[in-house]
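Field reference: sequence -> structure
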Amino acid sequence: MVSVFLIFFAVLILVILGGIRHSRKTPAELADLASDLGIRLTRDWTFSKRGGAGSTIRCTPGYTALYRGLPVFVAHVRDREGRIIGTAFVLPLTRSLPFPLFCTCHVDSFGPSMTGDTYRDIYLNRVDTGIAGLKCWSTEEGRSRVLPEGGDVLISLKRLASLSGTAGTRDLSGLPRGGFMVNDREIILLVSSSAMLSREWVEEAYRFCQILSAYGSGGPGVSMAAQKRGWKVWMVVLFALLAGFIIGAMITGQIKPAKPSLSWCWKFNG
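Structure field:
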């Protein structure tokens, strides 16, 4: 009976470790993207991003990397049913802006949602940038500080928007590349296929990140909700091992449920 219990326990451990190993494996398309960009992806269990209330899409726990010394994040974008509809490449500002800023460009194909409701208080403060396909909102402070006509931010935004319009590389010329979002904490590139995320576009986003960070005053602007997923995973593993140990011991007879004693009842009646 002891050997049966040990076999059961060993199989349970192998199943759990196999699941962890599979979850750490980088998908082929993201591995190809990392190779093209010259970065190394590491699974990050703290990465989680949703579009806010009413969102129909979300970014799964993804991968971290260093791009020219800047910590970046890569994740699949999924719809409500869990289907992969694209890839997100996130570049956090090294210094977050002290005022609200929200811009979108060609993201309608990803559903109504990555906009969320975080910036609904400034939706009445639309900024006319003159850039085709770009929608931008900010406060008066943001409009005057980072969005003046002819400023370096608008010039970089225009280059970023032009690169997001068409792929123009490999055999993808003329096809929609994707789009991007900018807020006061990060820049998010969104593509329907990771093959459309060219080094030229990422490099321009990196330059724009440096330009925008120069106007910041806070700390690193990572707006991901760090939910300590790693700790949760290990707690689940430990719980599963403990439960498997108890169940296996009960099956093999190593542990027998204690029978309730009725001696107190006899004493009471006596």
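Note: Residues 2-24 form the longest helix (23 residues).
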